[in-house]
């Protein structure tokens, strides 16, 4: 064989070898992608500063629902998200029965009526199991911390309540405000659908509960601090782990309700963030992990809320940022 033919054969062999290597690499990467699904978890890109830096935001109309605690977050963040991502259309949806809450939102998510959901409690074991039975899984992504507040009638004169005292009220062990040094008034608890306990009156919405407490000197209602602290018809009580360490859910000094129309009380987010205030919980975006566009929508939404821009807006709404 001549030197020219040997050179040509060597070049041809190199081309064939390179082609085989490339083919093997393509097969390996394609097979890996098929194993992980068409929609990958994108929650690691949430370190961006603003909404424009989030990738894989899908096009379409996406329904979500769930906890009413999220009302102020939805009100402020959704329009801002739509301005940057107009093709990512968001629609808050509630069921036809009962008051919307975390449980109803997760139930609608399980029934494929929602793309993702808002939750003010962790997903329960039975809900994880129900999702598994339907062929997908649920992932809860924490995005904020919410402080809970106790609302009472403005005339009620007590220094505050401990966590144990609140539990005793809910359990029916304490039934009169005079047991705390207050007036001889029977305690009447108001709550929205889904709450449990003794001496309980269920009302349709948090607004209805606030109106009830505003006209009932013995009334009590627990809800998110951003909703209650700024109200002008009721007042919120300091809460503590013991009576010597009662922490107000509002910033000091307290603004008298007589001045409320000119200046509102503000949420004590510093105490919520430090853990000094004992009645807090995390808020979650519940994502349906099914390797479809619903998963992509839920992950994109959670990522948007975890950006610096999203966390700042959450803080302005009266909640505690987690980043």
Topology:
Elements: H1 3-36, E1 60-66, H2 71-84, E2 88-92, H3 102-110, E3 116-119, H4 125-133, E4 137-152, E5 161-162, H5 163-171, E6 188-192, E7 200-203, H6 206-215, E8 219-224, H7 225-228, E9 235-236, E10 239-240, E11 246-247, H8 269-274, E12 280-289, H9 293-305, H10 308-316, E13 320-321
Parallel strand pairs: 1-2, 1-3, 5-10, 6-7, 6-8
Antiparallel strand pairs: 3-12, 4-8, 4-9, 4-12, 4-13, 10-11
Please state the CA-atom Rg, rounded to the nearest Å: 27 Å
Helices and strands, in N-to-C order?
HEHEHEHEEHEEHEHEEEHEHHE
Query: End-to-end distance, in Å?
Result: 71 Å
Largest sheet: 10 strands, mixed
Uncertain segments: 1-8, 10-17, 19-44
Count the DSSP helices. Answer: 10
Based on Cα principal axes, name the global outline: globular
Helix content: 25-40%
SS class: alpha/beta
Can you tag this structure with a few keywords?
323 residues, alpha/beta, 3-stranded mixed sheet, 21% strand, globular, disordered N terminus
What does it look like?
With 323 residues, the protein is α/β, with parallel strands linked by helices. Helices cover 36% and strands 21% of the residues. The protein has helices spanning 3-36, 71-84, 102-110, 125-133, 163-171, 206-215, 225-228, 269-274, 293-305, 308-316, and strands spanning 60-66, 88-92, 116-119, 137-152, 161-162, 188-192, 200-203, 219-224, 235-236, 239-240, 246-247, 280-289, 320-321. Strands 1, 2, 3, 4, 6, 7, 8, 9, 12 and 13 form a ten-stranded mixed beta sheet that branches. It has a three-stranded mixed beta sheet with strand order 5-10-11. Helix 2 (71-84) links the parallel strand 1 and strand 2. The N and C termini lie far apart (71 Å). The relative contact order is 0.18.
